[in-house]
Amino acid sequence: MVSIEEAKKIVGSFVVDDLLKDNMILGIGSGSTIIPAVAKIAEKVSQSNLKVKCVPTSFQARQLILSNNLPLYDLETCPKIDLTIDGADEVETKTKFCIKGGGGCLLQEKIVASASTQLAIICDYTKMSKQLGENWKKGIPIEVIPMSYVVVKNKIESKFGGQANLRMAKAKAGPLVTDNGNFILDWVAPYNQDSATQWDQINQSLMMIPGLVETGLFIEMVDFVYYADRLGAVHKI
Q: Does any domain span residue 135?
């Protein structure tokens, strides 16, 4: 059995070997799973003399691109992206619906993904589930305008149930502040393992709430999911 860290390295290397081509514009995602993938991109660029342009989904992704000496671009210069590689907090196997935003970068991740011809999600075996909410218990991240967080919280809880908790920062007093200057609510939704939740409809309803900027539900956006299982074999769905 391989460790989770080993699984991340294996799947990160695999997806780059499988999808990276010369002259690609790449969206670079956020989170720990992306780190070995970006290192592999840098290695292939150097060894094979490939040309790529990299667009980050967060401040962390920007620093990752720079630290690997890859060319840094943005959506103004590259509004059409060939491929984005990103991680996820949970992936529903049948639909490829995802929960993202555990690291606080969901809004920019979704914008870059929407500009991409292909979105590839990479993860380890702990992130795969039969239904969203089965494994990820911290709640669906929801980015909100700071002045609206109580109003949005109350609307979510009254309409859908569960609890929408304001995410607090770990290294400072007060709420976590995103790269966009917003707050995050983590909505712990009611979960019923015996019935499929209509996440597409719920996502649309959530997006109608004034003050709610974006959700961490990635619905019908993912083209490929690559995950490494407990033995280190990579599966593509």
A: no
